[in-house]
C-alpha cells in the first residue's frame, strides 16, 4: 500500500500524452502498467473486458473474482485495484468524462446506462455466449480504428462506443431499473444523481424529497421496493464510501478526513463510521494496509 493515494489522468496511459480516448488489447496494456495493481483511481472512465486469465478485481472495496467475458465498468473517482493470475487478455477502453459532450445533443444521454454510473452493483456484467462474437468484433474494429490517423477517427470511435453501450444495455436485462415503471425509475436515478453531487451538504432524505417534489415517505418506499434499503441508508452509504476512499491515503489524518466530509468533529465521524461499517476508521485502515 502506498502512503499517497494516486488519482491518474488519462494522459499517463497515452503515448501522445494528449488523447481523450484509448482503446487497446488488455495484455500489452497491463504489461506496460504493472505497477498499477495497488489501489488507485482515475479521472476518466475505465472499461475492461476480460477474455482470458483469472484473479481478483476490487471496485470501491467490493471484490470480484475475474473470469473470462466479464465486463468491468469504472466511473471517474471509483477506487479499484487488481491481482491477476495467469495470462490476462481482453480489451481496455479509457475515455474522458467529457468525451461525448460535443457529440450528443442530450448531455444526460449516458445516464440511461446504469453501468456507466458509480453504483458498484451495476459495474460488472457477464457477457452471454451468444453475444460474444458481436462484442469481440466491435471491439477489434474499435482497436483498429484507434490506431489509424483518418480524419474522422475520433467521431468514428464515439459511434462505436455508443454501439457498445447500446449492446451492453440490451444484454443487461437483469437491471433492477428495467422492472420499474418509468416514473419510479426516473425518480430513483435522479435521487442517486443528486446524492452524488450533494452528499457533503445534504444528509437527510427530506432535503432530497423536497428537490424531487415528492414526499419523504414516497421516496423511501421507492428505495425500499427497488434497492431493499432506505433512502437514508443510501445517503449514508455514499458518505461512508467517500470516507473509505480518503482513508486509503495515509498522508491524511482521520481528523482531516472528518472535516473534509463536513463532520463537526472527529469523534462524531468515528462513531458514524463505526456504526455503518463495524470498524473504526483506523481499524479500516489497518485492514486494507
TrEMBL record:
Coiled coil: none annotated. The keyword Transcription regulation applies. Pfam families: AraC_binding, HTH_18. Transmembrane segments: none annotated. One of its GO terms (molecular function) is sequence-specific DNA binding. The keyword Transcription applies. This is AraC-like DNA-binding protein. Keywords: DNA-binding, Transcription, Transcription regulation. It comes from the Bacteria. Residues 189-287 form the HTH araC/xylS-type domain. InterPro entries: AraC-bd, Homeodomain-like_sf, HTH-like, HTH_AraC, Tscrpt_reg_AraC-type_HTH.
